[in-house]
Design a protein that fits this description.
Elements: H1 3-47, H2 51-141, E1 155-161, H3 170-182, E2 190-195, H4 200-210, E3 214-221, E4 225-228, E5 239-242, H5 243-250, E6 259-264, H6 268-277, E7 281-285, H7 291-306, H8 311-324, E8 333-337
Parallel strand pairs: 1-2, 1-3, 3-6, 6-7
Antiparallel strand pairs: 3-4, 4-5, 7-8
Helix pairs in contact: 1-2, 3-7, 7-8
Length: about 350
């Protein structure tokens, strides 16, 4: 029951108790009056010299005694009810206090969630504004770079997942991405190199051997660090890598990637440096993001890419998927672009024979 329901029930019980106590008072008053009448009748019987009058007064006294006894029983019966109502009141007051505390705590949790979402939206809006301003300023000074047109070769996506302590569902995310790509229109034009339990060696090997167009990382991170796994079969704390070291590893190739996607908490702080030094496009998360939100965004993003959508449209599609699912993190994925690169015209998958 809610606090309002407990209040209504408590008010009803309190009224019942008040009415019962009123009836107790009425019957106690009646009992006293009848006993007084009985006493007067007996006194009158003792004073009269008439036998018949004395007998009549005594009979009257007996009637008054019976009436007093009946009134006393009724008073006692109503007193039992009043006591029962009082016990019910005490129990309801305890339950009401618990319900009010629970509702207050729920309201505070909701307020906290709403504030967190507002803060996330504000952070994402600021990041987007900074990116738009930088893009606008640079576009005045020089023309947008011309990205190489998609070749007939497949789009190579290196997917690195790390959860050394086993608290993230990176395997589930990789499965959802593969399923999304395999169901897409141009599934034959994408090649995935999926590396769960990824170490720093997997990063370097994937960059130099696979030469990916897209580098995708899912795991733990913050504004300055990324956590890979170690060659350890037991749960462990992981290998902490600085954002600078990660960027250096990704650009250590003759064919740097076009996009770096960091599907990890607080990683949006790293993407501005990535689009300056590593790749023309980067995506990161503006705050902490739940597993379900991260998985849904990634699956829809790659589905849209594999359907021939631009990076900008694929990003918006991923955000829309979260909104349609009623998830809270739609405002967290943040897209950044180099000053001379346009995510709205960058299409990563375009089969041979299609027009430009």
């Amino acid at each position: 029951m809610s606090a309002s329901q407990f209040r209504s029930e408590l008010e009803r019980k309190r009224k019942n108790r008040t009415d019962a106590e009123k009836r107790v008072g009425e019957f106690r008053t009646k009992e006293s009056q009848k006993r007084s009448d009985s006493a007067k009748a007996r006194a009158a019987a003792s004073k009269t010299k008439s036998l018949s009058t004395a007998q009549g007064k005594l009979k009257e006294a007996e009637r008054r005694d019976k009436e007093a006894e009946a009134a006393g029983k009724e008073a006692a019966r109503w007193q039992v009810k009043a006591t029962s109502y009082m016990k019910d009141e005490a129990s309801l007051m305890t339950k009401l206090a618990k319900a009010e505390r629970a509702e207050a705590e729920a309201a505070e949790r909701k307020r906290s969630r709403d504030q967190q979402q507002a803060d996330r939206r504000s952070a994402a809006d600021r990041a987007a504004l900074v990116s738009r301003v930088a893009y606008a300023e640079a576009s005045v000074e020089r023309a947008l770079r011309t990205l190489p047109a998609p070749r007939a070769e497949k789009l190579r996506v290196l997917i690195l997942g790390a959860s050394s302590e086993g608290d993230l569902r990176v395997g589930r995310e990789q499965k959802r991405i593969r399923t999304a790509v395999e169901s897409a229109l141009h599934r034959d034009y994408i090649e995935l190199d999926v590396r769960p339990a990824a170490t720093t060696s997997d990063l370097l090997d994937g960059i130099t051997k696979f030469r990916p167009h897209v580098v995708h990382f899912s795991g733990h991170s913050n504004e300055q660090l990324i956590v890979f796994e170690k060659e350890d079969d037991e749960p462990h704390e992981g290998a902490v890598v600085t954002a600078q070291a990660f960027a250096a590893a990704v650009r250590a190739t003759d064919t740097p990637p076009l996009l770096v996607l960091l599907n990890s908490c607080h990683s949006a702080a790293q993407i501005d440096d990535l689009v300056i030094d590593v790749a023309p496009f980067a995506i990161g998360m503006a705050d902490s993001i739940d597993d379900a939100d991260a998985i849904s965004y990634a699956a829809q993003f790659y589905a849209a890419v594999a359907n021939g959508q631009s990076i900008q449209s694929a990003h918006l599609s991923g955000q829309a998927a979260l909104q349609l699912a009623g998830l809270d993190g739609a405002d967290l994925p943040t897209l950044a672009a180099a000053a001379d690169a346009d995510p709205g015209s960058a299409i990563l998958v375009k089969p041979a024979g299609q027009g430009s």
